[in-house]
Amino acid sequence: MERYSGFGLIKHAIRHHENWQRAWRNPAPKKQYDIIIVGGGGHGLATAYYLAKEFGVTNVAVMEKGYLGGGNTGRNTTIVRSNYLWNESAHLYEHALQLWEGLSRDLNYNVMFSQRGVLNLGHTLQDMRDIRRRVNANRLNGIDGEVLDSTQVQKLVPILNCSEKSRYPVLGASWQPRGGVARHDAVAWGFARAADSLGVDLIQECEVTGFEIEDSRVRGVKTRRYGSIGARKVACVAAGNSGLLANLAGFELPIESHPLQALVSEPIKPVLHRVVMSNQVHGYISQSNKGDLVIGAGIDSYNGYGQRGSYPKIEQALAAIIELFPIFSRVPMNRQWGGTVDTTPDACPIIGESPVTNLFFNCGWGTGGFKATPGSGQVFAASLAGDEMHPLAKPFCLTRFYSGALIDEHGAAGVAH
Amino acid sequence: MKQVNRIVGGRCVDYDAEIGFTFNGKSYQGLRGDTLASALLANGVDVLARSFKYGRPRGIIAAGVEEPNAILQVGATEATQVPNVRATQQILYAGLVCRSTSGSPSLRWSLTGLVGRLFGRLMPPGFYYKTFMFPGFMWRFYEYVMRRVAGLGKAPTVKDPDIYDHLNHHCDLLIIGAGPAGLTAARVAGKSGARVVILDEQAQLGGCLLHMNNRIDGLPPATWLAQTLEQLTGLDNVLMLPGTAAVGYHDHNFIVAHEIVAHKTSGHKMAGHKIVNHAGRDDSPRLPRERIHKIRAAQVILATGAQERPLVFSNNDLPGCIQASATSVYIHRYGVLPGRRLVLMTTNDHGYQAALDWHAAGVAGQESDEKRGRARRQVVAVVDARPQADSPLIQAIRSAGIRVISGSAVIEAIGKRRVRGVKIAAIDSLGGSVTGKVETISCDTLASSGGWSPVVHLSCHTGSKPIWHDEYGCFVPGETIQAQHCAGAITGVMTLGSVLAQGAESGRVAALAAGFSLSLSDDDIPQAEAIEEAPGIQLFHLPHIKSTSRAPKQFVDFQLDVSAADIELAAREGFESIEHVKRYTALGFGTDQGKLGNVAGVAITARVLGKSIAETGTTMFRPNYTPISFGSVVGRDCGELFDPVRYTAIQSWHEQQGAKFENVGQWKRPWYYPRPGESMQDSLNRECLAVRQQVGILDASTLGKIDIQGPDVREFLNRIYTNAWLKLPVGQCRYGLMCGEDGMVIDDGVTAALGDNHFLMHTTTGGAAQILEWLELWHQTEWQELRVYFNSVTDQWNTATLSGPKSRDLLQGLTDIDLSGEAFPFMHWRVGRVAGIPARVFRVSFTGELSYEINVQANYGLRLWQMLVSHGEQYEITPYGTETMHILRAEKGFVIVGQDTDGSVTPDDLGMGWALSKQKRFSFIGKRGMARGDCQSRGRKQLVGLLPVDPEYLLSEGSQLVCDPAQIANMVGHVTSSYYSATLGRCFALALVKDGHRRMGETIYSPGVKSVSRATICEPVFYDPEGERQNV
Ligand SMILES: Cc1cc2nc3c(=O)[nH]c(=O)nc-3n(C[C@H](O)[C@H](O)[C@H](O)COP(=O)(O)OP(=O)(O)OC[C@H]3O[C@@H](n4cnc5c(N)ncnc54)[C@H](O)[C@@H]3O)c2cc1C
Question: Which of A38, A58, A147, A207 is surrounded by the most beta carbons within 10 Å?
Fold first, then answer.
């Protein structure tokens, strides 16, 4: 792999950029792999990368039905934080956050991880109780976090409406300075390029349409484009489409797929330098380095795979943003879009074995899995390479829905972007 | 200053109405009817912006929504600033103030321009992914610098003074686009009696008719247009919405359209037809700035036309390079000729119109130009990429003495801040390379036409991928998903006669589909004179003598500075999917969503990959078709109406008493009632003691109340609640606990049997709406066989709670109900009169004291309250708020769902196993969930009480608890509620603690930021454990 650097850029500029190498190959698949990963989103590509890099498993293919990173990875509002309430999730997301902190250099691809800090606003007394509880838990877990009062919040975000007269006045916030945003496409591409250079085959435009299963043991996948391809293990990392894949393998997942939308404004001069999230008023916003206000809308309550949501959700999202930031009223909204999110009953992912031997799932990240991308990939890779699930992944097993060992992040984190 | 480029004959401007405006601090004059763009061009303003990446000077290219460069900041005052206004869409008004959104320190001397010139080469697509990584800590600095140069306009710093409205329409037929196709369709469908809405983004209806010359039905286009509009105005079933852009096409034929009202009130010359104005007259001071029209249409006709593609050649971004058709628009509509010496470059016959119009205008203005000693306006040459095209249009150009250079292309524009000349060379028939010598021609304007792109955006919104039409050389709408029809240039058909015929036919078909039949007569199909055309060729990116990577920049997407070389590079680097090309190069990510450049981008990608354009496909356009303000989307749902506050009938009294309020759900509830000089804790102590010793009064009206009726109501409650409901006698109440399917507590409250088939359920204040939905969900999706009906009656009743040992005496003085313990026991309810008002009285208690909840019809609520208070004076009645209520209930160990529970707590965890009725025939929601191994196992967090070792120490709600202060990461629980109790004379708390029920008496620690505090675990009931006080 050609190393990227400022120096390299100069070198190529002299040659009019005519000699850049391909970022990744476009290979035809082999007949047999050690591991096939279904789904070329951030999580699937990260899994492939860590398999090859940390565990030496390079006979790996990633099968993507469309283009790499074209699912939720390339559609999300890119908020990264690790201040989750429960130990299990806090540990997993913090593991991811630590990987984020070195990711650009590790991948030799600038994923523009911008640690500008994340504020979760509290507007009611109960919000503040929950915030205190979560920040206390975070600190004891070694995760950075502070409870701020409204004056401190106002100082961090001068344009936020902190008036006591507003409908739901800002009473305070939790503040995680190490949180932030990253460039979503770069994450997919960075992992793809690094995985490819270690020998992983990235097979695009190749939908997996079924599994080869013998004696309830997976032997490979079926595709329309290349027929059957063998594998010792198959790992499904297909977000909103996970339920469909499970059906193809003959079982059901406790997952519902819903539309989730986001929107951006036209670029304006940067005025918002933090990530601001509010559950009570229900708006999420950051401003990209291009100047777009990036805004997350609420989840649609109906199920669907359409990658399009309903208009009222857009109206509600903007109403919330105007409530928080009245000065954005005259800013033009540019585009809206939707993804298909895979939600579980306890708002936590499913990482683990399935009823079919050697068929694994990593899904259920719902509205908030982007932040976990490197961590999810790494623990999943460790689990696939070894004989046992990684300790950080274990609590997220599918069987928790049968045993009742749920990790309910709804209550404390609300919609977890 | 003189309008140097103004000529006579503009159809839409009023030459007698000069109006002043300023751009970048300089004053100019325009005409009423101008757009900001036409006015700037009239004044010879070439440079309006500096480009995003390289800081190159940019001017106006187009005349409509597709304009990528002329993005300005408009607004005279801070509050009325509008960022990113496209000059081509802004109607000029007197006193308009605007400035550039780029270029620092000035448009002329731009720093980014310098950086772009020096370092532009270091900025290929995605350069930022390849660098700024070392050293790691420097990223913050790099990012800081990036953010310094980011963004176009700026948001105002103060609140928006304007309002925005939403209007709903329901119609049989919505026609989007009022050009020849749309208008013809409207005329036909209008006759059928169907309710028709026709809208157009332009302030004047007519589309291309406003600037074309072709006769229709023997009439000049303007005359035909005026007649048609008059006919439509005469039809009551046709609503016309000019200046209204359809911006989103959603499922179920739901269209969101955006109207700029301010334009209409600024005295703009209108085409003269109905404007919806439900908000009042035009002179009404509170007219909205913009409106959203939400249109639900049985059928939709997309008659959105097509946008011209400029050609891609070196330095094609120099001011003076313009869309050929835009030239005609400026000439005919606004009387603006944006230059003196024109070179036209075209791949098709349509482009010639611009040259003809320019030439005619030049001849007409010759005399006055000469008088003023100005150079004559002329067409220097027409460069046609086709080798031997011939047609009447081409002959007309030739016979006007204009040089036509065939089989050639403009390969480069020359100039610094404006085109000074062009390089022209012969090219091969496929347009792949330069084959002849390069000739330089001097000119100041270069119009180009590379064919037309149908406006397929709205059809894309429905989820339909556009498909490439090879014959027409453009993407046309793909599969039809909604009840949608297309007519006119959107289908790729460009000849006026066919467009009109399609319009008429689509009007008929769509009306028929909506249930209105009619047959077309000849009169319905307007006739246009046929003009013979030579076929165009598909050419997007013109060759240069140098390779693309070495030639001067050839721009595809102007707004984001994406060049042909960038696209080629992306494809070479493996970004082969057109979506990857888009994302890697940013092609089409601008505020114009790449309306001008997308097709060329696709074509270049296809060429590099050796694929056809059809195989390469296009990216999807998403709403909004053209950007709209946040404010318009929000409409009136802001400020006070964001989430309207709910008040009880007693609000005015609470305010008079100086209550402090707390938000609970959507309600404002009195939190506590401070007296002068009291601290909050003083008030709470006073209120608490009053309830424990005398009597307090609480406004409990906000509790959710759901009236449930039907023969199966008991069975339904039995399934929804964890405890038993089949046998509750009429006249009694019961506390009920509700769980989710996972067995976790979600709500609680008292429910009363009003009759055998009639119950009143109380929910928590915040949970009322969700619980009603929850009941409906189960009823409608799972238990349809149960005959029950739900109705929210929260607002219909007003509830005053009297609590305290003296509540009986107080109430008895006002009611005919026998309140004695025998006649009216605890957990019963009675009907009677209280203070003369019909009332339902519940004897339930959330404080642990003798309590009565008096419910009256809400309109009597305040009266009842006042009577209770005045009658209660002799008992020293004290109003208390939610905080006191919380303290009192916590002393009794009553939980608040949502505070002491968090969605992971079972009834057993709360020590409320007594509320589980395991014998039910049908089971209940949550039974199976809570029976799972982990919900039964050890290590669950359970509700306990805590007594801080230091009785004065108030544990903080939300603090985490550990068993061993040396191992703080080993958290075993947290504090859910914590108060100072005046009754107990100490602090106490409730907490959820792992295995708490078995840890009574143990010490537990709460590690704070600075110190660790200690507490003893105890039963969560601190006061009157036997419940004697409420039972008296
Ligand atoms: C609007 C929106 C906003 C969000 N905001 C945030 C946020 O701010 N922070 C955050 O942390 N998270 C956020 N998320 C969630 C986050 O995007 C996802 O959890 C995360 O990106 C999931 O990554 P993934 O790789 O698992 O899934 P994806 O990126 O969706 O990848 C799955 C891939 O599987 C492919 N696939 C599916 N079926 C098949 C098949 N049969 N064969 C082959 N390939 C298949 C799909 O094409 C897709 O590319 C948001 C999501 C949305 C939609």
Answer: A38
